Give the backbone structure.
Amino acid sequence: MKLLKNIWYVAAWSHEIGESLTTRDLLGKPMLFYRKRDGTPVAMIDRCPHRFAPLSMGKRVGDNVECGYHGLQFDCSGACTLNPHGDGRIPQTARVQTFPVVDRHGLIWLWAGDPARADSGLIPDFEHLVSPHLKTIGDQMIQNANYELVVDNLMDLSHVNYLHAPYQQVDDFLRAKHDVMQDGGTLESRRTVASTRAPQSFQPFLADPDAPVEYWLNIRWHAPGCCVLETGVVPVGEPREKGLVRLGTHIVTPVTTSYSRYVYASSRNYRLDDPLADDETKRWQQMGFHEQDKPMIEAVQTRMGDGDLLSMRPILLATDGAAIRARRLLAAMIEEEARINEPAPAALA
Amino acid sequence: MKLLKNIWYVAAWSHEIGESLTTRDLLGKPMLFYRKRDGTPVAMIDRCPHRFAPLSMGKRVGDNVECGYHGLQFDCSGACTLNPHGDGRIPQTARVQTFPVVDRHGLIWLWAGDPARADSGLIPDFEHLVSPHLKTIGDQMIQNANYELVVDNLMDLSHVNYLHAPYQQVDDFLRAKHDVMQDGGTLESRRTVASTRAPQSFQPFLADPDAPVEYWLNIRWHAPGCCVLETGVVPVGEPREKGLVRLGTHIVTPVTTSYSRYVYASSRNYRLDDPLADDETKRWQQMGFHEQDKPMIEAVQTRMGDGDLLSMRPILLATDGAAIRARRLLAAMIEEEARINEPAPAALA
Amino acid sequence: MKLLKNIWYVAAWSHEIGESLTTRDLLGKPMLFYRKRDGTPVAMIDRCPHRFAPLSMGKRVGDNVECGYHGLQFDCSGACTLNPHGDGRIPQTARVQTFPVVDRHGLIWLWAGDPARADSGLIPDFEHLVSPHLKTIGDQMIQNANYELVVDNLMDLSHVNYLHAPYQQVDDFLRAKHDVMQDGGTLESRRTVASTRAPQSFQPFLADPDAPVEYWLNIRWHAPGCCVLETGVVPVGEPREKGLVRLGTHIVTPVTTSYSRYVYASSRNYRLDDPLADDETKRWQQMGFHEQDKPMIEAVQTRMGDGDLLSMRPILLATDGAAIRARRLLAAMIEEEARINEPAPAALA
């Protein structure tokens, strides 16, 4: 699995990582997570370099980890700090690979590449997840599919009119104005329907559910799998600032070529304290993500087998623009990264 | 899996295919089946050419199918008839592969090769399945084994004296007269015991179960996996026309190299309206096919692993004649088909 | 899987093999075991050379085996003795591979190599298993791991202070005197703590559980996977002959590269008739072997994937000496065996 390395991936929700040793497969590797006594999160490969036991089967000793098989201890930098055997000398190679991690916006971000380049300023903006002006409801799930198929699903939102009908269906949506913009390593897809009936998912929260609204659906993608989806409705003629808006968080992290972890949330700007609105969001996430998207994405993976999407020559339609651009942009970034890491040919050295 | 292509395969019993979208893996491919409003059966690859979603997760729109992911529609010829996105233009390559299918003798027959050569006159004769002069009881099952191992089981019926003893056992059967005849792409194996005690499976239906009978067992094979098994007993000296006869239908269709679908039935010329005779047939099919043949054939597959039978150098006995001839005939047909489809070498072009 | 061939492997406990046909995968092969009417055990490949049916699905006919599919019979030498079909001639190649087996010390030993070299004098000494002066409690289990990982676990007993703490933990054990000796194809690792508190596992059986004892732990390895582990405690100053001693039997037999069978027992020289001591042993075997060793060894296998231990460059510590020597000795024996079996190069012939 060729992956982009010098980038931040989401490893978990912040609340999932605590003092106890937690293991999670990510990016094709078994990883160990925990927090130091001061709360700082730590990530390392979950495998002792001595006999390859999972360190997660050991225990915490202060901020260090002790292997449960033969007792070697490692600190948070991955260095071995104790060899209880024989003369106790510590081989120089006794190290576990660690990863830079940052706890931000309620998420644990992991840098998969060169630690020297791990700039937390590169973490995309998910501030809305912790905004006091929004009410956020989220969770996570497994997708038995390649992470790019999950991104495809997000970047081509025309599927809401079929897979998520009638709940998220919007009349005149498929022929609506649709722009795709690129800004460096991010893409944004914007759709607007100037006047339509609000989708069912907004109707309970509108003064007049049947009155015509302007409807918009914008999704912003950060490589390789972090998306923010803004959905809004506002009575026709009113400014968007007065509308009902939901910011959807959709972050997919690859595990294997056909297995991914998917973190999602919905942050709304209306009825912040209304438990009925919370329930409506949870019901939608269960139905839409678990019962509609997941079976479809996984069925697509099954039908594709080991095939690569573009090599399988899919028919491409107008609606595929954003998803295909995201795929090509990501492929170019991975290729560029591999090129830079290659040693210069001898003739040029 | 190298398969014969220009041949009819059985996809299902006719009653299994109705108006609703039905998916079934056959010949290494996911297939979609349904009937048009006029009852005509339709078969196509169960995969949308746009994003590879299973069409079976979509829905019927008249005689067409609408993909459940992004709403493309296809007609029964596999042509895309609706693109709901953007300007609605339909790419020329927007097609699903379809297969000629014929509903005959209570079975759905599927032509796997060049549609132009799909001559329904080539469907082998299974008229007995719908004959009013016979009573037919049948069903189907999965065999976790290569389809040729299932054919081997049928083409070497000497196993009835061991695997199906005592119910189908016949004294003097193994040393009995045994002929194998070939007629084009079909083989027939005929065994006769001039005088013996009828097997238990016939005894309840004979005036004198202990009187000596002539017993015969003929099996006709049509490539690649369609067999008709005629079993009969008649009091010694009487003509066969006066005997009790069962025509067994045994049709195996490959799915993968080690997974097959097996359709079976028994059509008898006696006690047509006797529910006890029906029960006797069902009991035998459950015991003989599900509890005796299936575990044995699947155990053979397990013991063979990925091996090819003839490459594994089995000991060949007199009784293997028909099965080995069927294997060699099928291999030659597949090779011939591949040869014809190959482009002529450049020097000859 | 490259295995040592000209060596005795343990196939089963003696009591597991009786008159009925018993199948067990060992050394990458399906094997059939049973006892002749005179009690002699028999081992052969569990696969008929005719159509590759498992012979274990057939039946005993005297001391012979009849295949359940088409009735061929084989004697205990593997020769076909009956072909019930056609003229009954028996092809010369109609043979099943058999293996020399010996019933000794309560175990069934199987010789995997050249039968002409199967010298029962080469069976390692496990006489203690049937000694009237000891009380033996044993059983067996599956390890979803390569057999060499199970041997590693045994040959590096430093893990008792971590994985088996506190029950088998011994103070000052890790820094204790430790010798590794080689004698031909066997290795012995000896550790002694001159004065310590007895491990919990011995305490209930000592007059004064808190009095200082000499503690020793010696393990002898016979290639490829037979170990005898002697553990003892004696009050400081007393001769070892007066001590409490347990002889542990630990025998691992490879099945596949990541699946093994593990036979274990504990033979003690104290409280021979005390059911509480029996219970203590059983409790320890359940806790130590099934709930501590097995999950750890299997997790190591998972973390290693298809990797070869030494190729993965583990950090090697003082405590790894015996295990690594056992691995290297075994690799050399396998290589030597392969070298001898190779035909001489033509130039030298």
